[in-house]
Amino acid sequence: MNFNEMTIKDFVQTLASKEPVPGGGGASALIGSIGVALGNMVGSLTVGKKKYADVEEDIKVLMFKSERLSEKLQELIDKDAESFAPLAKAYSLPKETEEEIAERNMVMEAALEGASLVPIEIMETVCEAIDIVGEFARKGSKLAISDAGVAAIALRSALLGASLNVFINTSSMKNRALAMELEGRAGEMINEYGAKAEKIFNIVKDKL
Known about the structure:
The chain has 208 residues and is mainly alpha-helical.
């Protein structure tokens, strides 16, 4: 199913149902897409204003980048759902004999890795978006600065939400070296970009 083509109402209803997807990863990607789109709104309300003529070209570049990131995050909603399918199938594999257990463990390990990499990609994309929203907050129209603050908090939520989908999968991985590597990458992004997003929010709040 292409979740990008769903109405908001249908997406939310599916999210609330017992269907395995979309789940936390897809929701995080959607929240991230909304956050970066809000940043783009700041740009749209800045371009063409004489007061901001000196930063107009910078804003246009930011708008182009943020549009690409918003589209990528929307695509990651479906990619996250696709990455969960092998994992859901692996959980249902038989485990009666030693051979079945060995096969199940092998399939499960590959599925857990795949299901961990997509939320990592969501986090990386959100980090790019946080940098852009910071620029919108600094250079964009003061009349829309509150939207930059909302964008920053939405992106922080997306970052933290996606990280939980990394950790829930790495916690079950037998390859602890890979698990620790992925957890480390996620942790670094949380520490650096979670703080950046919160700083943007506080800067915006202080200007209101």
